[in-house]
Structure formats: structure tokens, C-alpha cells
Specification:
The complex is a heterodimer of chains A (508) and B (746).
Chain A (H helix, E strand, L loop, with lengths): L4 H17 L6 H25 L8 E9 L4 E7 L4 H17 L7 H20 L3 H10 L1 H11 L5 H29 L9 H5 L5 H18 L8 H8 L2 H24 L3 H28 L3 H22 L2 H32 L10 H4 L1 H14 L6 H15 L17 H28 L15 H19 L5 H14 L4
Antiparallel strand pairs in A: 1-2
Helix pairs in contact in A: 1-2, 1-4, 2-3, 2-4, 3-4, 3-11, 3-14, 3-19, 4-5, 4-6, 4-11, 5-7, 6-7, 7-9, 7-10, 9-11, 9-12, 10-11, 10-13, 11-13, 11-14, 12-13, 12-18, 13-14, 13-17, 13-18, 14-16, 14-17, 14-19, 14-20, 16-18, 16-19, 17-18, 17-19
Chain B lengths: L2 H9 L2 H14 L3 H27 L11 E6 L9 E6 L1 H24 L24 H20 L3 H19 L15 H30 L4 H5 L1 H12 L9 H16 L8 H4 L5 H10 L1 H16 L1 H13 L1 H6 L6 H23 L3 H21 L3 H36 L15 H4 L1 H15 L6 H16 L1 H26 L6 H5 L5 H16 L12 H7 L6 H7 L13 H22 L11 H6 L1 H8 L4 H74 L7 H22 L1
Antiparallel strand pairs in B: 1-2
């Protein structure tokens, strides 16, 4: 057996986190340094896998597969492909930059770093898990530190409410999805029951089964991706969370929802996906437009970003609902692009709040003069967010729109008539494109009111961001520009990862 | 064109991009180094552009497939073929390269003087405010943005496909946002006056709306044809795609795909080129520094809008192919005599263009800000071009685009020089009462700023279309000729607009340069530095000379004159026509439009002189036109027909209102309300269980076991350390034990 890269990436933060907890509480710098080194290590390893993955060969690579609970057909089975690798890398990057910008946390810094690392275990794990039992197991591991961190270090006014809301919703999400998965498990013939992703994909479930299980799995995970109307946990939870957790939650956790919706939903149940695609389009459209409008009127800087995440996740869902290569690839790119972008946004909001002690737009202004790095990085993120060419958002959104206009051939069964006309997908593209305008509006509004204009007197002596903050901002902005200018670094990889899904759907 | 030269074209946009990154990342602190890099980069692009352009001019039959230069590589591949990047040099590109690079070089050099280079940094100046008398604090950044802007423009010109063109288009949109809001901290005492940062957002948002619609057009085009390459769509297999697009019905009943796509694409242009009803951003864009105005209004952004329509013209006109084919069956000769078929998108274009030309010209008459007059005149002139395209005047539109770029860049830079001189005067005279941009406070500047005066006068005459000697006359005349032959209504509208153009230009010249100075600033104003005046002189040469590129062969006297000088009459027509599959016929000489254009130009100038020669004794005089037409009507013009206010009520306010309804009504009201209701009911159920079942029934039974639990608790207390990390270790130990059990039990 080859070196177990994936297990090492997944469990290194666990080991480091537990080790940090054994330190005396006053050794904060050792705790921070350990976290930083561990995070950098995971980035390095996932980068190694990212560039070491053999695209020509395709499929799952770096596989580890041992029996775990054989009576139930449960295995410890890990592996990555072109769809999960960018997510793995994203997790590492958000972990690393999260540690960097949390350097200044003084309140129980040791526990903060430890829990943050332990939280990432589940996140890394789910992107590598090829056994659905293992998947859910790792998914739930992350819940405890997540809840704790929001409630202990979060925004004092809303942390209990936000933390509780978020945790309950995420439990609901995984519960619904788990019911769906168990239904699939039970549908397998008695001797051959398995939680293996590949086994289930090969099982060829009957279309009837697929149609009623699909909403459970896709819908359950879509809650994790903040689908309307079950989205309200996301802004509230993200705003209540401390900065690094907001970055991790919005940057990566929401992607888990979408990742699983595709991998467990569309991939295992292609017939179900085809049946429900237009319905997903409708819900996703609401997400895209509705959340963008709400972001437009927020007075709280952090809520703008919170709702903008909800809006952008709608675009990912739209891409998935196209069920064609362009749309799916665009959605895959958007997951990475949005993850980096939103992590950047939340880190900047954190930096502003830590210094200005307010997040209210009317009390801010002119910060470009005091913290130019944060201002410019916010502009980079903003341009990514509104799909400007040269930034990763553009190369993600263009394929989504191209794919959406094409749409997918639908069976005209049991669906409202308008969903099966030639109009449907182009109209969806038109409506969702409206969000580009609204996005530009709320981003520019935020830029104008936070970074441009008059600097209020009480903020005149605001300190600039730290050197480590600049490294984090530079890293995140740099990634968006690199992918934006040279998308070949990611697009073909993502596309190779989606090929099995497309094959399952019966196309190229 | 030789392959070496084609590979050279790749390099044209690169230097400004390099310059942008160099300045932003490295040389930001050194002003001299920054502007040297920027000017060197644009000069390199300029030289390369001219080499390529003149090589193209010298190639016989340049438009033919084997003569053009094209090169394309995949950008990223998701198995769809949509994402290619490449350059294309055809006649249209060559012309664009020729004038855009020239104008941009002039603008760059001019910016050195405009930014007060060489003067000390004034300690009172703050970043984000216009400098008073010292060098601009953000001087370097300005050159970085200009470079990026130039990069966007060059990419747009050279792109061989719509996607890349769109990217250049968006880069310019981004830069115009950054540049218009360059003085981001600036605030005015008058709260109703738009600040630069608001103007930047407004420009960006307005063009954004149009861009999104254009993007949908691109998406639709890709859906319909599977390619975004210009050559493939328009030329491959004898224009098979155009036929396909024109003969396939679109989603909207009654329109072909070509028409719908054409309309979607041209809406992008309406935004970018500031045509009615999306014109409102452009006058406010005057909040940016003046070189920016020249960049946006002459050399780059607005030209880009017209360029896009010229580029996509075959798609807009595709329906005509079908009509031609149908007619050709019977009356080939008759069909040819009718001239171009005006398709639906062309009709839209003709209407919007002609309407905007007149509409903006009326507003320009009433403006007092020296740059706003020019802004509205730009909108109006772009209307001329689009109207020309709408009636099939392909070459005329491109011709006017080129001459306009020269004289409008000249005028904007000239106005910058005027403002600069006025600010100088204000500084010396300690005059804070007069607005240095307001023409009412000017007057008599011809003596103070002679070079600026002469060059501005030349530019103004070109704009007014002074017959025979200025480039503006030749190009405008060509448009009028096309309109006269194909669309009389457009002809009358444009003729009226041309009359107003000559009128307001004379008004402007008079208010600024003639009469006596009307403020201390104007008395003390003086000429700008050579870096500012030299570009003016160069541009004024082109503002006169560019007209000679396309003097029709059958034009009385001049046709022969041009030929006898060794130039080719109607050269542009011949050359540019090669961009299209079918060469457009040069319109035959007709006296009526010629007489008309001479009369409106001279008449407008004369009228302006008559009305204004004795007006404006002091800065508080009432405009003679206002006295003439009454203050109500004049107020309508002065307030730009209240379009801004209308949009605020129609679009901006409802967007925020909708946001609030979604948030407080649905999100906080319905969704969270439901959620909190569920939580409340659950708690209620819990209480019922507790009070009526748990306490009386379960507790009674369990009191006995409580004793045992108490004992266990006492014994286990030592491990309750209250430290989270100990608990975690215990949890892990427990998990290990369970795991071991499972392992043994398997």
C-alpha cells in the first residue's frame, strides 16, 4: 500500500489539535505556531495531490481501502478525483489563512486553535471519503467544535442564537440526507449491502426509487448549501461566528453541502436528478435573486457577505441543475472560487471589526486610507464576486450561464408545463443574470461606504492590518487572480472529475 | 499578412498590462519612474500598432481570407470549444489600432502635465482629492489605472472572438469605475452634486446592466452556433451561420435568432456608448480627472461600444441576407437598387442613434460646465454613428468613429488645459468663488492660453463640421449622404442635430475664449506646460488631416485634388469594406446632402455667433437661449429632461424596497417566524411533558434510583476537573474502547 496521504491530511489536524490542548494555557505562541505549521502542512500535501493527480488516468486516486465494520458493509475507504481535489486544497487554504488571521485572538487562544484544527478534520475527511458511513461519521465530528467555537468566541449579541440555529439546521440537513442514503442501502440486495459510493453508483436503482430518494439526499445537502427557504441559518450563523469559523463555514462547509448534493445526489441517482432538475432551477433562482436583494439593504457589513454567500451558492445549484458539462464544470469552479472569495471577505470583515469595533456601514468609511491592503483585497474579492474577467468568478460563471441556456433534455412527466418548454432554461439564465447587476450594486455600495469616502474622526488612528494578515489576504486574492487568468490550472481537472457523473447521466 | 507580424500583434496589449503591474507592485513610490514606465509601455504599443496597421494598409485585398492575420490558442478547455483566445487583424482592427493607439499615447503624455508633475507635493493635498497646486498625491496610481485601461482597449480591438472582446470590454468598465472615482474622498458643499465615487458607481452600474444583457446575447449566440469566433460566425462556409441565424426563429415570436441576438448585443453598446436611455452615466463621469474623460469619451470606452456594433454588424444585418436571396430570385437589379435591407436590430439602432443625436444635442446647448457640454456632444456624435450603422452606413460609421476620436480627444484634453489654466488663475488670484469648470466664469482666454485656444478652436470646428477643411465635415457628410439615400427621417433628424452641434460648439468657444474675462481666475489664467500642449497640437493635425482618408472620388474638385496628390480617393471605403463578405457600395455623390451639411455647419456657427457675440458680459447673465425659449423649457434641458430622477424612482428605489420586503417581510417575518413558532411549540410540548408526566409519574418511580446516582456522583467527582481538554481525552478514550469492542466482536 502506498503512503496514506489522505489519512495523513485528514488526521494531522486532529493530532496537532489534541497536542495543543495538552500545552499549558499560557503558551499561546506555541499553540499558534503548531496550528500554523499543521495547516501549512495540509496545504502542502493537498497541493502535492492536486498537482500529482493523473488526469489522463482519471478516476479515484490515492485510494486507501480497508474493512471497518464488514458486517454492515462499512469500509474505511478514501480517495480523491478531479472534483474533490480542489475542495481539499480549498480546505487547506482556508485553514491556513484562518490560522493566520486569528493570530491576534488572545481569549483562550490555545483552545481556539485546537478546536479550529479539530473542526477541519471532518471537513478534510468528507471530501476524501468514498464510504458513505465514513462520510456521515466525519461530517458529524465537525459539529461539536463548530458549535462550541461559535458559542464561546462568537459575536456576543447573537452567538447563542446563531450557533444554535446553525447547528440545528445542519443536523436537520444531515438527518434528511441520511434517511435517503439508508433508503438506498436498504434497496440493495441483502447479501450485497454496502455504503460504498462506487457500489451504490453501480447499483442501478429503479427510476421510481431514484425519484423519491433524490429530494431527500439532494434536498438535505442543499440545506447545508443554504437553499431557499431553509437558508436563514447561514447568514445568522456566519455572522455570529468568530472570523476564522465564518471563513471555514461559508468558505468550505457550504461547499460540503453542494459537493455531497452532486456526489451523493446526482451521481448516485441520475434519473432522479433529471426528474427534479427544473425544480432545482426554480429554487436556486430564488436563492440567487432573493439573497442578492437582501444583501443590498443590509447595514451590517458582515450580513452583506453572509447573504452574498447564499446568493452565490444558488449559482452553484443552477450549474448542477443544468446536468451538462459546461454547467457542471462552471459550478465546480464556482465552488472553489466562491470558497476563496468568501473566506477573503469574512477575513476582511473581521479585520475591520477588530479595529473599528463596529460593522455598521454608516459608522465606517474611508478605510482605504488606513488599511489599504484590506481595501484592495476587498476590491479583488468584489470583482470576483460580480464576475469580472480576470478573476476566478468570471471563468466560473460564464460556463454556468452558457450551460444554463442549453439546459438539459427533460422528460415531460409530472412537471408543471412551463418547466418543459423551450423557454425554461433560457429564461432561467436571463433571470439569474440579473443577479450580476445586483451583486455589483451591493459590493460597490459596501466598497463605497467602508473603504472610500470620508474617514470618520473616531477611526482616524486605526492601525493597519498585521503582516500575517497581509500574507493571508495576498494568498487569497492571488488565488482568485491566478484561476481567473489561467483557468486551465483547474477547469480540466474539475471536468475530469465530473466525467463519471455525466456518464451516469447518459451523456459525454 | 506575414506570420511574424501576426505574432507581433499578440504583443500589442502586453506592455500596458506589464506597466500596470509594475507600477502597482513596485514603482508606486517613484512618480518619475511610474510615468516613464507607463509612457514607454503605451509608446511601445503605439509603435507596434502602427507597424501592424500600416502593414495592413499596404496589403492588397487585405480583407480576403488569406490576407488577414489571425492566431488563436485554447485558453481553457472543458470540451466545449467556447474558450479560445486569439488575435485577429482585419481592416477594421487596423483602423482601430491606428487611431486608438495614437489618441491613447497623446493622453498618456498629457497626463504628465495634468498631474502637475515636477511640482512639489503640497502638504495640504490629501490622497483622493484633486491637488491644488502640487503634484497629485496618487500620481503613480493614476498611470497604473490608465495603463490597465489601455490594455483593456487593445484587447478589445484585437480579440478574435466575442468572449475575449467582452473581457476587454469589462476591464475597461472596471477601469472607468476606478478612474471616474479617482478622487474618491472628494466631497462637495452642495449635497445634490454628485461626488466622484457616486459617479463611478453610477457609470459602472449603468454599463453593468447593459453588459449583462450583452452577455446574454453572447450566451445565446454560443447556444445557437457553438462558437464565438468572429470569423467563424461571419465567414466560415460562405456565411452559413449567418444564414442559419437569420432563418431560425428565436424565442420571441416574429424575430429571427439573428435579430434577437443582435438586439441583445447592441444593448451592450447602448450602455457603453451612453445612448438613450442609458446615457445618464456619461455626463456624471466628468467627475473623473480630465485625461480620463478623454480616454472614456474619445479613445476608448465609448468608441468600444460603437466598435462592437460595427464588429457584429453582419449579425445585425443577417436577416437581410434572406431577404436578398428571396428577392434575387426575381428582381436582382431592383434589390440592389434598394440599398441595404434595414433589419429589426438595425431599425432599433437607427431610431436610438438618431433620437440620441438630437436629444443630447439639445441638452448640450444648456450646459455651462465646459466638460459637460463635451460629454453631451459625445453622446450626440455617437448617436450619429449608430444611426449610420442602422441604415447600413457601415463605412461612414467607422469613419466618423475615427475622426471623432481625434477631435474629441483633442477637445477634452483642451478643456483639461482650460480648467488647469483656470485653477492656476484661481490659485494666484485667491479666487474661490468661481468654479474653474464653469464657462460663465471664463471669457477672453484666447489671449491667456494661445496654444490651447488655437487647438481647441480646430477641434471645435471639426466637431461643428466646418466644411472642406476639417475631418469632422467629411465623416459627418458621409453619414448624411447615406441617410439621405436610405432613410429620409433619419436624415432630417441628423441634419437638425448637426445644426445644434455647430450652434453649441460656437457657444462654447465664445464663452470660453472670446469677450472679456468674467472672473479673477480667468484674468490670471495662463497657458499649460508643454507636455499638455504638445499632445493638443499633434491631435489637431489629425483632427484636420484624418478626413482626407475618405474623400469620395466623385466629390467635386476634391476628388481630383486628392487623386492628384497621389492619395486614393475613397480609400477608407475601399479598405474597410474588405472586412465584410460583400463589399458595401460607395454611395454615389448627391448634391442635396452636401449642401445640407454645409448649410447646417455654417448656419449653426453663424447662429451661435449672432446669439452669443454680445452675451455674457458678467458671469451672472442669463443665457440668451433661456430668454428666447423661456425658463420652463430651458429648465427641462438644463435638468437633462429629469431622466436621472425618473430612473431613481423606477429602478433604484424599487430595488431597495424589494430588498427590504424580502428581508423584513419574508426572511425575518415568514421564514424565521415559522422557525421560532416551531421552537416555541416544541418548548410548550416539553413543558407539558415535564409537568404532567415526567414529574408526577417518572420522578416518583425514579426517586429510589436517585439515591444510587447520588452515590455514584460522589465517587466520580474527582474526574470532573472542569477542563475541556480532559473531557475531550475521555471522549476519545471512550471511542477507543467502543472501537475495540466492535473490532473484537466482528
Amino acid at each position: 500500500m502506498t503512503f496514506p496521504f489522505l489519512s495523513v491530511i485528514t488526521f494531522a489536524p486532529l493530532v496537532a489539535g489534541l497536542g495543543i490542548l495538552l500545552l499549558p494555557p499560557e503558551r499561546k505562541d506555541v499553540a499558534r505556531a503548531t496550528a500554523l505549521v499543521t495547516a501549512a502542512f495540509t496545504v502542502l500535501l493537498s497541493g502535492l495531490l492536486y498537482f500529482g493527480y493523473d488526469q489522463a488516468a482519471g478516476g479515484f486516486q490515492f485510494v486507501e481501502d480497508v474493512a471497518w465494520i464488514p458486517q454492515l458493509g462499512i469500509r474505511y475507504h478514501m480517495g480523491v478525483d478531479g472534483f474533490s481535489l480542489p475542495m481539499l486544497l480549498l480546505t487547506g487554504i482556508v485553514l491556513l489563512t484562518g490560522v493566520m488571521i486569528s493570530w491576534g485572538v488572545e481569549d483562550r487562544a490555545r483552545e481556539y486553535m485546537a478546536f479550529f484544527l479539530i473542526l477541519s478534520v471532518g471537513v478534510f475527511g468528507v471530501f476524501a471519503a468514498l464510504d458513505l458511513f465514513l462520510f456521515f461519521f466525519l461530517l458529524e465530528i465537525a459539529v461539536f467544535p463548530k458549535f462550541l467555537m461559535i458559542v464561546v468566541w462568537g459575536y456576543p449579541k447573537t452567538r447563542e442564537y446563531g450557533g444554535m440555529k446553525l447547528t440545528l439546521y445542519l443536523f436537520l440537513a444531515s438527518l434528511v440526507a441520511l434517511v435517503g442514503v439508508l433508503a438506498l442501502y436498504a434497496a440493495l440486495p441483502a447479501g450485497a449491502r454496502s455504503f460504498g459510493l462506487l457500489d451504490l453508483a453501480a447499483a442501478n436503482f429503479s427510476p421510481e426509487l431514484q425519484r423519491w430518494v433524490f429530494p431527500l439526499i439532494f434536498g438535505g445537502f442543499a440545506i447545508m448549501g443554504a437553499i431557499f427557504p431553509l437558508h436563514s441559518w447561514a447568514p445568522d450563523g456566519h455572522v455570529a461566528a468568530p472570523t476564522a469559523i465564518s471563513m471555514m463555514l461559508a468558505g468550505v462547509e457550504m461547499k460540503i453541502g453542494m459537493y455531497a448534493a452532486l456526489r451523493l445526489g446526482v451521481y448516485l441517482l441520475p434519473e432522479g436528478a433529471k426528474f427534479w432538475a427544473p425544480v432545482i432551477v426554480v429554487f436556486a433562482l430564488v436563492n440567487v435573486i432573493y439573497a442578492a436583494y437582501i444583501a443590498l439593504i443590509q447595514k451590517d457589513f458582515k450580513y452583506i457577505i453572509g447573504f452574498s454567500s447564499v446568493s452565490h451558492m444558488g449559482l452553484v445549484m443552477l450549474g448542477f441543475a443544468t446536468l451538462n458539462p459546461l454547467g457542471l464544470t462552471g459550478a465546480g469552479l464556482q465552488m472553489f472560487s466562491h470558497g476563496v472569495m468568501t473566506a477573503l471577505f469574512f477575513s476582511i470583515v473581521g479585520m475591520v471589526y477588530d479595529r473599528a469595533h463596529t460593522r455598521m456601514l454608516p459608522e465606517l468609511g474611508g478605510l482605504m486610507q488606513r488599511m489599504p491592503w484590506a481595501g484592495i483585497a476587498f476590491l479583488v474579492g468584489g470583482f470576483t464576486s460580480m464576475g469580472m474577467p480576470g478573476f476566478s468568478g468570471f471563468v466560473a460563471e460564464i460556463p454556468i450561464y452558457l450551460g444554463l441556456w442549453q439546459g438539459v433534455a427533460l422528460d415531460p412527466i409530472n412537471l408543471p408545463g412551463f418547466m418543459t418548454t423551450a423557454w425554461f432554461f433560457p429564461l432561467a439564465a436571463v433571470i439569474s443574470a440579473l443577479s450580476i447587476v445586483i451583486t455589483a450594486a451591493y459590493i460597490l455600495l459596501a466598497v463605497r461606504r467602508v473603504f472610500f469616502g470620508q474617514l470618520p474622526a473616531q477611526l482616524a488612528e486605526l492601525p493597519d492590518v498585521s503582516a500575517l494578515d497581509k500574507v493571508a489576504l495576498g494568498l487569497l486574492s492571488g488565488l482568485m487572480i491566478v484561476v481567473g487568468l489561467y483557468p486551465a490550472i483547474m477547469a480540466p481537472l474539475v471536468e475530469s472529475g465530473l466525467r463519471p457523473v455525466l456518464q451516469a447521466l447518459g451523456g459525454g | 499578412m506575414s506570420p511574424e507580424l501576426v505574432s507581433l500583434t499578440w504583443l500589442i496589449p502586453v506592455p500596458p498590462l506589464v506597466s500596470f503591474f509594475l507600477i502597482i507592485l513596485l514603482t508606486n513610490r517613484s512618480k518619475a519612474l511610474s510615468h516613464t514606465i507607463a509612457i514607454a509601455s503605451i509608446a511601445t504599443s503605439f509603435v507596434l500598432s502602427w507597424i501592424v496597421a500600416f502593414a495592413a494598409f499596404g496589403t492588397p485585398h487585405f480583407g480576403a481570407e488569406d490576407a488577414i492575420g489571425a492566431l488563436s490558442v485554447p485558453w481553457f478547455d472543458v470540451g466545449s470549444g467556447a474558450f479560445m483566445m486569439g488575435v485577429l487583424v482585419d481592416p477594421l482592427t487596423a483602423i482601430m489600432l491606428f487611431f486608438a493607439s495614437t489618441a491613447m499615447l497623446a493622453i498618456f503624455v498629457y497626463s504628465v502635465g495634468y498631474g502637475n508633475y515636477g511640482k512639489k507635493l503640497d502638504p495640504h493635498d490629501k490622497p483622493g482629492w484633486p491637488a491644488h497646486n502640487g503634484v497629485d498625491p496618487l500620481y503613480s496610481r493614476f498611470f497604473a489605472y490608465l495603463s490597465l485601461f489601455a490594455f483593456g482597449m487593445l484587447v478589445l480591438i484585437l480579440a478574435d472572438n466575442l468572449l475575449l472582446m467582452f473581457m476587454g470590454w469589462e476591464v475597461m468598465g472596471l477601469c472607468s469605475y476606478l478612474l471616474i472615482g479617482f478622487w474618491y474622498a472628494r466631497k462637495y458643499d452642495d449635497p445634490n452634486k454628485i461626488t466622484p465615487r457616486q459617479a463611478g458607481v453610477k457609470a459602472f452600474m449603468t454599463t453593468r446592466v447593459a453588459d449583462v444583457i450583452m452577455l446574454l446575447g453572447i450566451v445565446y449566440l454560443y447556444y445557437a452556433t457553438g462558437t464565438l469566433s468572429f470569423r467563424e460566425i461571419m465567414f466560415a462556409h460562405e456565411g452559413e451561420w449567418l444564414h442559419h441565424l437569420a432563418s431560425t426563429p428565436s424565442l420571441i415570436v416574429g424575430l429571427s435568432q439573428a435579430s434577437l441576438i443582435g438586439i441583445l448585443l447592441l444593448i451592450g453598446t447602448i450602455g457603453k456608448s451612453a445612448q438613450f436611455p442609458l446615457h445618464t452615466w456619461l455626463p456624471d463621469a466628468m467627475e473623473g480627472p480630465t485625461p480620463v474623460s478623454a480616454m472614456i469619451h474619445a479613445a476608448a470606452m465609448v468608441s468600444a461600444g460603437v466598435y462592437a456594433v460595427i464588429r457584429m454588424y453582419p449579425v445585425l444585418a443577417a436577416d437581410g441576407l434572406i431577404a436578398h436571396t428571396a428577392e434575387a430570385a426575381g428582381h436582382a437589379a431592383e434589390a440592389a437598387a434598394h440599398g441595404p435591407v434595414i433589419t429589426t436590430p438595425m431599425g432599433v439602432l437607427a431610431f436610438i442613434g438618431a433620437f440620441t443625436a438630437l436629444f443630447a444635442a439639445t441638452i448640450a446647448v444648456s450646459q455651462n460646465d465646459v466638460k459637460k457640454v463635451l460629454a453631451y456632444s459625445t453622446i450626440s456624435q455617437l448617436g450619429f454613428m449608430l444611426a449610420a450603422l442602422g441604415i447600413g452606413g457601415y463605412v461612414a460609421a467607422a469613419f466618423h468613429l475615427m475622426t471623432h476620436a481625434f477631435f474629441k480627444a483633442l477637445l477634452f484634453l483642451g478643456s483639461g488645459s482650460i480648467i488647469h489654466g483656470m485653477e492656476h488663475g484661481a490659485h494666484h488670484a485667491h479666487d474661490h468663488a468661481s468654479d474653474p469648470q464653469d464657462m460663465r466664469f471664463m471669457g477672453g482666454l484666447r489671449h491667456k492660453m494661445p496654444i490651447t485656444f488655437v487647438t481647441f478652436f480646430i477641434g471645435g470646428m471639426a466637431l461643428a463640421g466646418l466644411p472642406l477643411v476639417t475631418a469632422g465635415f467629411w465623416s459627418k457628410d458621409e453619414i448624411l449622404l447615406d441617410a439621405f439615400l436610405h432613410a429620409p427621417l433619419v436624415f432630417y433628424t441628423l441634419a437638425l442635430a448637426a445644426l445644434l452641434t455647430a450652434f453649441y460648439t460656437t457657444r462654447q468657444l465664445w464663452m470660453v475664449f472670446f469677450g472679456a474675462p468674467r472672473s479673477p481666475s480667468a484674468e490670471q489664467a495662463h497657458e499649460s506646460s508643454w507636455t499638455m500642449t504638445a499632445p493638443l497640437v499633434v491631435l489637431s493635425v489629425f483632427a484636420v488631416g484624418a478626413g482626407w482618408l475618405n474623400i469620395p472620388a466623385d466629390f467635386p474638385l476634391f476628388g481630383q485634388l486628392v487623386a492628384s496628390l497621389g492619395l486614393e480617393p475613397g480609400w477608407l471605403h475601399h479598405f474597410l469594406g474588405g472586412t465584410l463578405v460583400e463589399h458595401p457600395e460607395a454611395p454615389a455623390f448627391t448634391p442635396v446632402p452636401l449642401i445640407t451639411s454645409v448649410v447646417v455647419a455654417l448656419g449653426g456657427i453663424l447662429l451661435g455667433w449672432l446669439v452669443y457675440r454680445n452675451a455674457w458680459k458678467t458671469s451672472s447673465d442669463v443665457d440668451p437661449v433661456e430668454r428666447g425659449i423661456g425658463s420652463v423649457l430651458y429648465g427641462l434641458l438644463k435638468n437633462k429632461y429629469w431622466v436621472d430622477e425618473l430612473y431613481d424612482v423606477l429602478f433604484v428605489k424599487p430595488a431597495f424596497w424589494l430588498g427590504r420586503v424580502f428581508f423584513t417581510g419574508i426572511d425575518k417575518g415568514v421564514i424565521d417566524g415559522f422557525l421560532h413558532g416551531v421552537a416555541w411549540i416544541s418548548l410548550g410540548v416539553g413543558n407539558v411533558f415535564r409537568d404532567y408526566f415526567d414529574k408526577p409519574v417518572v420522578n416518583g418511580a425514579s426517586d429510589g434510583s436517585g439515591v444510587a446516582v447520588k452515590w455514584a456522583g460522589r465517587e466520580l467527582r474527582p474526574i470532573q476537573t472542569g477542563r475541556v481538554q480532559h473531557y475531550l481525552v475521555m471522549v476519545m478514550a471512550g471511542a477507543a474502547v467502543i472501537g475495540a469492542f466492535m473490532w473484537m466482536a466482528r
